[in-house]
Amino acid sequence: MAINFRDRYAHLQEVEVAKNVLLENMLDEIDRLKSHLLDINGVLEYVDSNAFVSVLIDGDCMNFRDEFVKCAETGGQEAAQLLRSLVIDHVQSQVPDIQQNFDVVVYMYANVRGLAKAYGDAKVIQQRDDLERFIRGFNMAHALVNLIDAGNGKECSDAKLRGRDS
Question: What φ, ψ does residue 76 adopt, rounded to 5°?
Fold first, then answer.
């Protein structure tokens, strides 16, 4: 039986072409995957750079220190700054691998009329305008800190926090 070297050589050339096509396809796939990986890394960097912690507070149950309320607008600013600082410290202690530059978004809901009456009855403020100035300072301390009048009803703040009508 005679060995046909030309046939074997032709077969090897076909295998070599198939191998080269396979390698080209693999290299194209690697380039495509690298491109997707860069896209994913970009998204992850964006997500990391826009991280935030949201804090929801029932202001009817969590009263401010009298000394803050007495200082009106300045006290409101100090209270908001202290709250943000404490939240940042707490989050960093509880989530050690969190990025350092995250935002804190605060929504405090309260029955402002009820708070004004309570602070007035306790002689913390002289008139309702004193509490309004405190709230103004609180809200102005940072763009993401908000004390919102939830309404005059007993459960208005609770309803806001639950996201349902009372």
Answer: -65, -45
Number of helices (H), then strands (E), belonging to the chain: the values are 6, 3
Closest CA to 114 of 75, 71, 58: 58
| pLDDT tens-digit series, residues 111-127 | 999 999 999 999 999 98
Residue 98 has what DSSP assignment?
A: S
Per-position DSSP letters for 121-145, written without gaps between them:
HTTS-SSHHHHHHHHHHHHHS-TTE
pTM over 0.85: no
Q: Alpha-carbon Rg of the chain, whole angstroms?
A: 32
Tokens of 12: 């090897």
Would the pLDDT of 11 be above 60? yes
Cα within 13 Å of Cα(104), Cβ side: 22
Instruction: Collapse the DSSP code of 108 into the 3-class scheme (helix H, G, I; strand E, B; otherwise coil) and give the result.
Output: strand
